Amino acid sequence: MNHVSDVPEQPPPFVQFGPEVLTGAWETVPVSAVKEFTESWNDLPADGHLPTDVPYRFRRYSTFRLAAGGLERLPHTAFFQDADVNAVNGGVHRMFAPLEDSVAAGPVLSAIVTTLYERIPGSTAGIDTCGVHQIRVVATADAEGNPAPEGVHQDGHHYVGQVLIQRDNVRGAESILYDLERRPVHRAVLREPFETILLDDRRVLHGVTPVTPAADSRAGVRDMLLVDFFPGPHR
Ligand SMILES: [Fe+2]
Asked: Which Gene3D superfamilies does the record associate with it (predicted)?
């Protein structure tokens, strides 16, 4: 008897897929709604929790229950990570501005979250809640933007989707995944809007290299949508 085969096989701890997966999920959504969704990154308040004089990160955050009929927005709350997963901001309840109603209730966010959920690389048992972050990192010739100043880390969730919304005039921002011994297992630069990495946050760590402006540019921008999946307290 081969005991090795008795062990249930786990899927790889991450998947990466091209933009066609998400764009295919909203084929019936008007182009104007997709445009409104992506342009909402132009109106993100500065992240007040960064130790820099000039803000380089801008964001909004809301949480939702994953209901049969779609996303149910939950009361606005602070974003919290334990100090052992975030050495820079861990242990602090960070209050960010909520998502705009048009984004939170719109068809594009719902399609993205549903599609990510369907492709989660592992068991979805008990996972009924998600946190949605809209994040813009700006790099200038004077100051690079650091999407993850905490370095190589875990987010403290079950699964995390990292969706590129746009990168404009930037260099860098290489996404790197690591096994639990901190050995790199995957490297990728997300370039096409809606290219996505979806990872099991308990089985891999992640980091991203700093963002600098492209050659001959004064400033560059990288917009991301992050979706955290986890079991909520409301059952
Ligand atoms: Fe992270």
From this structure: q2cbj1_9rhob like domain (2.60.120.620)
